[in-house]
Amino acid sequence: MEDPNRKIWIMQYLLLLSAACFISQLYASDDVQLYESFDDNFEGRWIVSEKQDYTGVWKHEKSEGHDDYGLVVSEKARKYAIVKELEELVDLKDGTTVLQYEVRLQNGLECGGAYIKYLRPQSAGWIAKEFDNESPYTIMFGPDRCGATNKVHFILKHKNTKSGKYIEHHLKFPPSVPSDKLTHVYTAILTPDNELRILVDGEEKKKANFLAEDDFEPSLIPSKTIPDPDDKKPEDWDERAKIPDPDSTKPDDWDEEAPMEIEDDEAEKPEGWLDDEPEEVDDPEATKPEDWDDEEDGEWEAPKIDNPKCTEAPGCGEWKRPMKRNPAYKGKWQPPLIDNPSYKGIWKPQEIDNPEYFEVEKPDFEPIAAVGIEIWTMQDGIVFDNILIASDEKVAELYRESAWKPKFEDEKLKQKEEETTESDGLKGVQKVVFDYLYKVADLPFLGEHKVKVLDLLEKAEKQANLTIGILASIVVIFFSIFLKLIFGGKKKPAAVVAETKKTEVAESSNKEGSSEEKEEQNEDAAAAPRRRNTRRDN
Questions:
Q1: Which pairing describes strands 58-62 and 69-73: parallel, antiparallel, or unpaired?
Q2: 315-369: pLDDT as tens digits
Q3: Separation of alpha carbons 83 and 128, rounded Å
Q4: Is 197 helix (H, G, I), strand (E, B) or coil?
C-alpha cells in the first residue's frame, strides 16, 4: 500500500512548483493591477488601522498544513482593519475587471465577515491609518455569516447623479458561504455589458445585470415616480370595505347571558364512588425528622400521598356533575356585515415625478484606489491570501488552476484521510462498547428485559445512524433496573399485595416463571398507579 505521507509530500511539492510558475507569469502580465500573495511579511506594504476600536492583531502565518503564507486573523471577538494602497487607480468603467481572493476559515465561521472592501481615492475623505467602517468604498465583496445571514456579499456604492448621494446597492439572492474549513476562492467579474458574475471555486453561482431592476436592492436606476410626501388622506376617506348593518336588530330570543357550559343533568355518580374518602392522605411511613424544632419550624405535618383506596374506586371525595356545552349559548350578538356604500378603497398618496430619477447606459463606477479588510468576527484563524485585481478572466482562471486548485485538492485529501482515520477509530471503539454490552446483556439481573436489550443492540450495530440513540436507550434501561434493584419499587397497597400473594399460591405449583413475571408487573403497577378519575371526569 502506498504511503499516505509520501502522497502528501508529492502534493505539497507540486503545489509549490505550480505557485512559483504562476507568480512569475502574473508579474509578467500587463493584465494584473494587483496581486498580493503574502509570501513576504505584509508590514510596510499594508497599513494596520490605528483606530481605537480595531484591536485585532493581524499575523503573517502559514495556512494549516501548507508552506503557503497568508494574512491571518489571530484573535476571536475582535474588530480588524488593514489596508493596502494601490500604485495606480483601477478604472472600472472600461473593459473587464476581475476581483478575486482566497479565504480559508480554519476554525469555521459562526458569526463574522471575511469580505474585502475596494476603496475610493482618499480625496473622498479617508486616510489609511484611520481606515474603518466609515471609509468610502466602491465595492464590498466576500463571505459573511451570522445567525440567519449566510451569503457572499456584493455591494456596489453608486453615486446618484441628481442628488449626489452614494447609495448602497445589494446584490439580491447572493450565493451562500461554503460550510467547511477548506480554502475557497471567490471571484467577481464585471464586464463592459453591465454584467456581473459571481464564482465560488471557479463555478458560477450568480449572474446579474447592474441596471436590471430585479437584480439589486435598491435598483441602480431609481423609479420615475414616487409617492407625494406632502399628500394627505382626506378626513372623509372611508377605507372600510364592510360595515355593520345599521338596520339589523338583535332577535328577542337571543340570550347574551347564557353560559357556554352547563352541568350535565343526565350524568349519574359512578357506582362505588367513595364520597367520604379524601384524594390524599398522610404518608403513614413518614416520621418527623430528629432535628425538627416545633418552635422554629412550626408544627410538623406528614407529607401527603395518594389515597390507596382511591386507586381501586372510580373516584374519591365529593362527586359533582360534569359540565357540557350549553345548547342555548350564542354569545354576544353582533349585527351582520354588509358592503360599505361609502367605501373608497385603501388610500395611497398620489405619485409625483421622482426628483432623484436618472438614467444611465452604464454604471458610473468610482475608481479603486486601495484594498482593505475591515471586519468584526467571533472566529480566529481566518486566512486571506492571493488577492488579485485583473482585467482578464483568463488570468484569474490561470491562478485558480495553477495555484488554488492544487492547494484545495491537497486539503481535501488530508480531510478525507482524517475522516477515514476517525471513522476507523470510531469503529474500533464501537466494537469494544458492543462487546461489553453483549456481556452485560447476559447477566441474570436483566430478567425479562434481556430480549429487549439484545434486540436494541442488534439494531444499533446494523444501523449506524441510530447507534447513539439506541445506546442511550440501553443505558436508560440499565440505570432504571439498577435503581429498582437497589431501592425497590413504591410500596404496594394492601389490596394489591393480597392479590399478588393469592396469584402466587394458585400458580406456584406449575408456573414458577409466570409467577415471577406477575410479581414484577404488579410491582410496576404499584409504583405507577393508574390515573383515577377526577370529580368532573364522570
A1: antiparallel
A2: 999 999 999 999 999 999 999 999 999 999 999 999 999 999 999 999 999 999 9
A3: 6
A4: strand
Number of CB atoms found within 10 A of residue 382's CB: 25
- pLDDT at res. 418: 83
Residue with more model confidence, 520 or 486: 486
Q: Give kind and range of the element (H or E) at residue 337.
A: strand 337-339
C-alpha cell at 50: 490605528
The region of weakest confidence among 197-206, 384-393, 488-497 is 488-497
The residue among 238, 242, 241 whose CA lies nearest residue 347 is: 238
pLDDT for 463? 60
Contacts 24+ apart (CB under 8 A), 393-396: 393/96, 393/98, 393/189, 395/26, 395/29, 395/31, 395/32, 395/98, 396/98, 396/100, 396/187, 396/189
Helices and strands (DSSP H and E) totals, the chain: 8, 25
Average pLDDT, the chain: 84
Strand-pair category, 261-263 with 216-217 = unpaired
Measured CA to CA, the distance from residue 389 to residue 36 in angstroms comes to 9
Which H, E and C letters describe 359-401, residue by residue? CCCCCCCCCEEEEEEEEEECCCCEEEEEEEEECCHHHHHHHHH
Question: Residues 127-138: pLDDT tens digits?
Answer: 999 999 999 999
**Residue 13 clears pLDDT 50, i.e. is over it:** yes
Long-range contacts of 51-60 (CB under 8 A, 24+ apart): 51/81, 51/130, 51/131, 51/132, 53/79, 53/132, 54/78, 54/79, 54/80, 54/81, 54/132, 54/374, 55/79, 56/80, 56/81, 58/82
First vs last C-alpha separation in the chain: 77
Residue 255 is classified by DSSP as: -
Cell 476554525, located at residue: 107
Cβ-proximal residues to 87 (8 Å cutoff; 6+ apart), any chain:
none
CA quadruple 284, 289, 294, 296: dihedral sign: negative
CA atoms of 306 and 313, how far apart (whole Å)? 13
